[in-house]
Amino acid sequence: MTDKKTAYLVLAIENQSNIHYAMAVKNMLYDALQYTRQVEAAIASHKKSGDYHGVGSDEFLSGFMKTDHLMPVVTLVVYFGPEKWDGPMSIHEMFEEQDPAILPYVPDYRINLIAPEAIADEDFDKFVSSLQEVLSFIKYSNDAEKLNELLESNENFKHLGKEEVDVLNACTNAEIAISENKEVIDVCQAIQVMNQRAEEKGHISTLIENIQNLMASTGWTLEQTMEKLKISEDDRKIILSEL
User: Fold this and answer.
1) pLDDT 10s digit of each residue in the chain, 243 long?
2) pTM, to two decimals
3) CB–CB of 58/64 below 8 Å?
């Protein structure tokens, strides 16, 4: 991150579709490597410029001068799952029970986590991008009633980008239809169509089961059975394609 003049922060993003139970160690390693690269870059810069002249022996041997500084490294873990993150949040949480007198001498390392399940509804407004819609959808993807309320209350779901819908499909198995010739998708309408098709499929499945039971008990033909049950022509075509 920069202020147009100076870089003052190294921000890393770690995307997770599943819970990683050693994330604290993983992030600690990545951050340590980033700090190592900064130190190595400083040493290489001094060697190239030859400005070691006149410095103390300790600075010369370490290669990193007293006037050198590191940029903070912040790694943000973004978990794209609806379940509660139940993995350790720090190195200390990964230990078995330890003597409290020892822990102060063991450096801890905590992860910075964004997990949909842990975000309060009022805090979703803090996201200024479509990440707000993506994370809130994921949070309620296993709760049909809450998800419905969310879709009805947020107009942005009527024109969500294809990339965002791809994320929802991948993370929640939403199976939202994406048209090749459209850049935005009306998620509300797409889900209504999905629900309608699911109801129709359930209706047809019930009809087929009733038909098969009746044919078995009466010996009627398929046509006779559908006639007795007064099944519409449209439903007959679907049933015939299913049998």
Assistant:
1) 556 666 678 889 999 999 999 999 999 999 999 999 999 999 999 888 888 777 788 888 888 988 899 999 999 999 999 999 999 999 999 999 888 899 999 999 999 999 999 999 999 989 988 999 999 999 988 888 888 888 888 888 888 888 898 988 888 888 787 777 778 888 877 776 666 665 666 777 887 888 888 888 888 888 888 887 888 887 888 788 777
2) 0.71
3) no
Place of tokens 């009527």: 158
The whole-angstrom separation of Cα 89 and Cα 23 is 8
Number of helices (H), then strands (E), in the chain: 8, 5
Place of tokens 């797409």: 190
- Phi, psi angles (nearest 5°) of residue 230: 55, 50
**Residue type, position 150, single letter:** L
Asked if residues 220 and 206 have their Cβ atoms less than 8 Å apart, the reply is no
Q: Of all helices (H) and strands (E), which one includes residue 114?
A: strand 112-114
| Beta-carbon count within 10 A of 29 CB | 12
Are the C-beta atoms of 75 and 31 separated by less than 8 Å?
Answer: yes
Q: How far is CA 62 from CA 23, 51, 83, 117, in A?
A: 31, 14, 47, 46
